[in-house]
Each structure stands twice: as C-alpha cells, then as structure tokens.
Hints:
Blueprint: E1 3-6, E2 10-16, E3 31-37, H1 39-49, E4 55-60, H2 65-73, E5 77-83, E6 89-95, E7 101-106, H3 115-122, E8 130-133, H4 140-149, E9 153-156, H5 163-166, E10 175-179, H6 180-187, H7 192-202, E11 207-211, E12 217-220, E13 225-228, H8 241-254, H9 259-274, H10 286-292, H11 304-318, H12 325-332, H13 336-347, H14 351-369, H15 374-380, H16 386-397, H17 401-408
Parallel strand pairs: 1-4, 1-8, 2-6, 4-5, 8-9, 9-10, 10-11
Antiparallel strand pairs: 2-3, 6-7, 11-12, 12-13
Amino acid sequence: MKILNFGSCNIDFVYSVDHIVRSGETITTNKLETFPGGKGLNQSIAISKAGSNVFHAGCIGTDGKMLKDILQKNGVDISYLKTVEGKNGHAIIQVNKEGSNSIFLYPGSNEMVTKDFIDTVLNNFEKDNIILLQNEISNIDYIVKKAYEKEMCIMLNPSPFNEKITNLDFKMLSYILLNEVEAEEITGCTSSEECIVYFKNTYPHLKVILTLGEKGCIYIDKNSVIRQSAFKVKAVDTTAAGDTFTGYFVSGISKKENIKDILKTASAASAIAVSRNGAAPSIPSKDEVINCIEGLKPNDTNNKSEILLGKIEAYISENFKNASLKDLALKLGYSSVYTGNLIKKLTGKSFSKYLQQKRCQYAAKMLLNTDLSIESIIENAGYENESFFRKIFKEKYGKNPLEYRKEVK
C-alpha cells in the first residue's frame, strides 16, 4: 500500500521564552534555534521513522534546500517535491519554560501548489493508496476531490483550522485526526463525549482519532470507541507531538495493524517527541519506541471522576428522548440514589437539571447547524412539553428559539 503525504515544508525559527508573548508586550528571547519543520515534513519523517515508505509531495522555495536534505536523510521519497521561485514557508515558534508553544506561519512556497501539479502527482497513485493531508498548502479541497475520485484512502489532519476546512466535504474522507480545539470548531461540542456522538451520528463512515493531550486519545468509528491513555514524560517542547502521533498512526494503518496497538505505539512515540527540543529532530525511530514503550508510565490524569462524567455525558447524548436516572444507574451498575448523588457531586446539578442543560445545548446546536423546524428540534431534544422547553431555553440563552436562530446564525 503506497503512502503519499501531500503537505507543507517549513523552516522553523524557534524562540525560547520565559512566557508566551502577550498582546502589546515586547520580551527578550533566551535562545533562537532553526529547525526543519512544517506539519507535512514532520509527518512524512514520522511515517518513515515508524518503518513505512512514504512519498512527500509539495513545494519548497529557493531557500529550502535544507528541507529537501532532511527528508532524504530520513528515508522519505522526494520524487514529487518541487522547487519553486520565492521564499520557503516558515514558522515563528515561541516555546515557554513548560514546553508549551505558540506558532504563526508564513505560507510562502506552500501556497504555490497548483491544480496542474496536483494532477501530475496523483496520476502516479491509485485506488486504496493512502493520501495524508494537512491544512498548510493551497488547493486541499481540489486534492480531496481528485483523491476521492481515484478511491484513495484520504486521511486529514485539519490543522491549522480555518474556513478551508469547513468547506471540505467530510463524506469524502476516510480518517480525520484532530485535537480538542479542532473538534470543537467542527462539531460545536465542548466535551469529547459529545464529539463522539456527533461524529457517529453525522459521519457514521468516517474514522475519527481525537487527541486529548495529556488525557490521551480516542478512536471512533461506527462500531467502536477505543481509548488510549497518554504516557507521563517531562515536556520540553510539544511542537511535533501531534505530527509524530499522526505519522505513527498512518504507518500502522498502512500495515493493517490492530487499532489498539497503533494507538499505544503512536502515543508512546508522541510522548518521546515532547521530551526533546525541535520538531522533526525530536521524532523517535521505531526502534526507540519499541525499546522505551514498556518503561513509560500511563498518565493518571484520566481519574475515576473524569471517566464517570464521560460515561454520564455519553449516555445523555445518546438518549436525549428517554434518558432517566434509573436507566443511567442501571448502565453504571449503581443504585439510583448513589447515581443521583454522584451526578450532583460531579456537575453541581441534579440529574434532571443537568439533563435539561444538555438538551438545551443540543437544541441550540441544531438551531444553528440545521434547517429543521423548531418543533422537530424540540421533539429530537426529548421535550414533550413545548412551552416548558421554550421557557427553559429562554432562561439559558436570553432569547426564544426563533430569535436565537435569527440573531446568532
């Protein structure tokens, strides 16, 4: 199975700072380092280091020779890497003492990917070959359309998120790998459990990998939900964490490995990457991951309370119409009294009030994202008494449903 990564190549200027600069603030950096980067380049290197052959397609500027060299050095096939006139894309990256980062991009050569070039590259690939995309190059909508016509396996990492992503037809995608922020932008959901329900209901044939940072990751398809804890390490630089995870995941899929094994390996590789400086240079080899994985300890951020709250939210999201405390208690294996007290402890609300809150949130999303009648939305949200719903909705949002749809949409 051939893997094509049609993606960006950047030069990363990494500034070490005490804290991420605030609006209107001027600070002095502690250090400046220059690294090869770009989500496309990083993910191609990660795929190669994970033990798979990968073709990288994209455009580099006349100042991008170092990027070409680093790809070749790491075993990436650059047959479809094109040099164009002008400056290469680059990133300005701030990294604070805790290893968190802030990034802005200059697209440069990455915005010079033309439709003719795309057609030329895709002529060399066929049905079921994997194509990996991010959002740092031009014409990704055209790439998706043409790859879909060829029946390729399309994997999208929708980063950085902008209107280009919202214009894509997600029904053409095979996989989407995204973080919490990107998931909220796409779904409007503020919790991972609500995201699970959204994707299952809206795109049942799409396989979703939701990365949650130190909380791990979740794999979602129409038949299953698989969770993987993150591994505990001292973070030095999180720049390439997501790219490393993505590369190892794609490699595992290309080899038809078990999903649970893929998630564990990709999470371990990502953990190793954040313990090192830089983007591409921080990505570990498959041998390093294999040697370290058993010594890594799972992060205990996912405590019992968070897991229980997730189960409660998932139950409500899947049972808006007929959710009941008794039924939830049965599914959790507790008594109704204990479950009610547990919900009050976790949410600060009784079960009925928490259910009303979730139903209102669902109705608000449906008002903004669909053209369903208000009566249909009320029914779907589980309300038998329309007047009661309108009263609850106005208390929460300050407007009746029709006013809310007109003013916010």
